[in-house]
Structure to design on (359 residues):
């Protein structure tokens, strides 16, 4: 019997313009870095996807809705979208023309080198229909981007967007202000200074509340967290994660990514309707195992039996760590699973500013 997984229509989500980034952040969910090939979404694909999202969101949101928030409407993201400003601008215009609500863009502020450039770009995007910006503030961005640029983006962003900007995450913003940081700050130094100044705030910032224990963070920050053997996570099904309708992502290869589960594709987002009618789990066996009652344990057994997967001696910080490690192992040996895409994601997991794992 065919087993179909129903996927609800997306309530909110992000379009990844490219995985290419100026930075290689230790916690990046999408394993972005400057080393990616640098493919960008084509205008044709993006417009096809945006048209469908517009139709879906017209059914969901009341006419005129334009509140901003991390989990409403559409956002443009990456990688770093400001590396291709003309593409970003064109897509903001398209999304606005299509009536998509609550459009915002995420950035690490690398480009905010002076007030006039920052204001001009924000104003240009606002005139094109952008409602807000999400400015990334965390110890991994600030070890590569001078904090003054982030502060500039916040100050000018507030002026241009009338206080509708999102600072993510405010706890880190407060920490850097209190530390008096202006330039960049290596992560080790951040840790040492925060341990002296405010260990409670340090722990709070690095908790699972603000750093998701998955993807690159599992490898590059794993040494900060308690680890468990694989069996600790068996029997955890991912049905809710893989079928959630909020904050989904679509990448520049048109992969429809459920939630934060980078490296997993529910299908080709040029046909969102087709995906939402349900995906055939016989054709997507890895997803089938993850949503089954056996959950990660089933995927683990399969990977051990079919591909000789070896459990990490040091253990795992989360179910998502175990999941991504198994998936990475599998894609290194076969390309038979169409849901494990893009493959390049798995190649960039263990990268850092220093270039190697510290886990
Ligand atoms: S375990 Fe895998 S499928 Fe489940 S939420 Fe984590 S990354 Fe997604």
């Amino acid at each position: 019997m065919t087993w179909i997984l129903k996927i609800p229509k997306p309530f909110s989500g992000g379009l990844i313009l490219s995985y290419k980034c100026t930075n290689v952040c230790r916690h990046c969910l999408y394993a972005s870095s400057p080393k990616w090939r640098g493919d960008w979404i084509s205008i044709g694909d993006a417009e096809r996807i945006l048209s469908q999202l517009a139709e879906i969101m017209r059914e969901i949101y009341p006419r005129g809705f334009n509140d901003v928030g991390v989990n409403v409407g559409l956002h443009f993201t990456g990688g770093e979208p400001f590396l291709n400003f003309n593409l970003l601008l064109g897509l903001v215009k398209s999304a606005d023309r299509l009536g998509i609500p609550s459009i915002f863009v995420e950035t690490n502020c690398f480009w905010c080198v002076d007030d006039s450039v920052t204001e001009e770009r924000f104003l240009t995007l606002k005139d094109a229909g952008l409602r807000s910006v999400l400015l990334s503030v965390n110890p991994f961005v600030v070890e590569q981007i001078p904090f003054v640029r982030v502060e500039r983006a916040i100050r000018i962003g507030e002026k241009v967007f009338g206080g509708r900007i999102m600072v993510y995450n405010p706890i880190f913003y407060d920490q850097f202000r209190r530390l008096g940081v202006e330039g960049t700050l290596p992560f080790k130094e951040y840790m040492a200074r925060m341990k002296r100044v405010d260990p409670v705030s340090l722990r709070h910032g690095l908790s699972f509340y603000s750093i998701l224990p998955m993807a690159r963070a599992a490898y590059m920050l794993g040494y900060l967290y308690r680890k468990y053997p694989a069996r600790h996570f068996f029997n955890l099904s991912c049905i809710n994660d893989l079928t959630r309708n909020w904050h989904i992502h679509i990448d520049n290869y048109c992969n429809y990514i459920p939630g934060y589960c980078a490296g997993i594709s529910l299908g080709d987002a040029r046909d969102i309707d087709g995906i939402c009618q349900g995906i055939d789990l016989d054709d997507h066996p890895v997803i089938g195992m993850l949503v089954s009652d056996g959950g990660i344990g089933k995927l683990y057994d399969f990977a051990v039996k079919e591909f000789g997967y070896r459990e990490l001696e040091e253990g795992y910080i989360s179910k998502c760590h175990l999941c991504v490690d198994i998936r990475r192992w599998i894609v290194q040996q076969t390309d038979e699973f169409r849901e494990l895409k893009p493959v390049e994601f798995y190649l960039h997991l263990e990268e850092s500013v220093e270039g190697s794992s510290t886990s």
